[in-house]
Amino acid sequence: MRKPFHLTALLLLNFSACSCIVHAQAPVPDSPMIEQKADSMLKKLSLEEKIDLIGGVDGMYIRSEEAAGFPRLKMSDGPYGVRTWGPDTAYAAGIGLAATWDPQLAQRMGVAIGQDARARGVHFLLGPGVNIYRAPMGGRNFEYFGEDPFLAAHIAVPYIEGVQSQGVIATVKHFAANNQEYDRHNVSSDMDERTLREIYLPAFEAAVKVAHVGAVMNSYNLLNGVHATQNCHLNNDILKKDWGFDGILMSDWVATYDAVGAANCGLDLEMPSGAFMNRKNLLPAIKDGRVSEATIDDKVRRIFRTSLRFGFLDRDQTDLSIPYDNPSGRAVALDEARESITLLKNDGNLLPLESGKIKTLAVIGPDAWPAVPGAGGSSQVEPYSAISIMSGLTNDQGSGIKVLYTRGIPTTKELFQRTHFGTDQSMTSSSDPFWEDWFGKPTVKVETFDNPNFSGIPTVTQVKHIDSWGAHEFTPPGQGKHSIRYTADYLPHKTGDYLVVAAGNWGDSWKLMVDGRQVLEQPHREGQAPQSTKLFLTAGKPVHIQFDYIPDGNHVLAGVGILAVDDLVSPEAKKIAAMSDAALVSVGFDPSTESEGMDRTFALPWGQDELIEAIASVNKNTIVAITGGGGVDMRRWIDKVPALLHNWYPGEEGGQALAEIVYGKRSPEGHLPASFERSWEDNPTHDSYYAPPVPQGQTPHVRYSEGVFLGYRYYTSRNRKPLFPFGFGLSYTTFSFSNLQVSPSQASSEGKITVSFDVTNTGQREGADVAQLYVGDPSAKVERPIKELKGFEKVRLNPGETKHISLSLDHRALAYWDTKSNDWRVDPGEFKVYVGDSSENTPLSTSFDVTK
Asked: Which residues have a catalytic role annotated?
């Protein structure tokens, strides 16, 4: 039986679905009839067949069991598009959806994705992801809903309800504490129970108790030393007992590590196959009593029960009446992009651009074209079409502004192909790549060894460039390992700083030496992006390059490039920037630099800081637009540019939405779902985000030393100032807050407290703001953050319009997790209320008392 869950402000939200929801396909509550049917089906299976059923088949399916009348069930990667079965609408990534602070929009997105799934016959959507943004390098931050569990829960619940209203099971993931992608199969997230319950579990809890999610997916990592898929405390004690979850707990793909541990500790379905939970391992364990048959029965019963609740035995899951490229989905994607793009700086009101003042706009940068709707990994969707930033700004005929475009810096592949090695470069001095390739001579020695140790007698060949690199999501490991050593000389043509870039693919490992000194290294691990460093080189003085490369797969996918920093930015970029009235520099990440399976850098990818500085130096009206899953290091240029936009990963309509905002057709609405630090050293997780080195074969442990003081909880409590605070976002208009009231001023901890206030648009145009309610507990018996988000509402107001807002606080809004009683506790005493539109801007405050 599900336990009641009082999640503040969820009670205030209207979760009734939009008119497009087909209610007859929504899941029905569990009932004696469903339980009887599940038991009847279960009795028709042998023990062997039951074991077979709890292991997936063919990559993305639960197998059928004809004897029980159970159909084959289909899954799809997500969560921001149904990506496994061909092209689909590319919606805004999770961090962008969170930046909208709009639960109704999250529900519309869920409905749209649910319809996309039905069009493709999909039973399970593998999303949403609700892990917490702990540090900007987290490789899947872009999939999640930011640093605050309250905000994450209020986006996740309507999303799940929207998906499941269409007769599709949502799968909330990754349970739990999967807050980094680096070494994700081996690392242990170590934290106390209070931190786990207050920060990393509430969004999962809301998904189970409020949204009644049909499936939960375990994560790869260990939690306090035990893999999530065999963690009894996480899966049995918390998920199934405390929260009353009666759905399906599945593994992430290849995230199971022990058959008996997984079977006994709550895992119901191993994906993509029964590599561990199979007949070979479980039949002997059942025979000798290590696993009970009742445990297996419970897993199968959960699969049957959930399928019956969703009607999978009563209908064809494929709905041929829904278009594959659904116009209603594109409309949702456009609204997401419009509401998520966040204006962080606008000195002198440069934005919006006025056609009377701005005649020509230079659009420059690696993310301006082609479109970058999302990042890499299992969430990456191939849209039928996507609007790039350059195209959106160019195609807006009503602006009257002429758009000039150039990329500005070479691609990684171009850098590798243009780097000529050898000390005689007289025939390759032309800047034309055609003539470089025509006249270039092989000057790179390639030694290929038939082992991974660079030992024995190699096969020797020569090439002109080290440029076989390609950004691939995944390549399977090769059967026979080999190693390749590239050696060459490089002759600098000028004295100064040079950028050195090297790259491999997925699990490849490599080392780059310059004159015998190692300058870059990539150890063998899951996932990687190109690395770079700077070296000071002297004109006419050759340096010796050695690149030792061990491919993980059967393909050679590596590259090395060298370029003078002064030559990074193309002359065309500087010229069109100088001749334009304003310049927009589109920088950030893409699927090759931010992806599942690897952590990204805090710094922008190579060459982008130099590009921003170069354009800002010739055009005082420079706008920077960042594409990415979170904060980046902006120290080199933030004070040199007047305007800054964060696009997140906006989905396929991002280019049009950005154009509407830049040209002033819409006011920006996004607010940060995570704090942006000025430097990585300012982040509270700086000293403990990565695990200390351990001997090979041992478990690396990441200690969550910041406890509950994560993100804005740390900055506000420790009186530290981030670059941009949580909840922050500028508009083209202004807002004021007034008339704060709390009723009653003295209440019991079990009563409801109403906080009301007014929001007024004090500017000259229509706009939206996010009213945020924070609560502090200065009299608590444990140390608590100064303020924590406990309510919010997005408001759209015309000039001069005022809206009265009322938000409620309940027991859970006031409570902390008490490790002694193993329950939520409210200490009597004074509580403080703060109201405003960011964690740092809370102009209204008052207090109230709580009695026993």
From this structure: 252
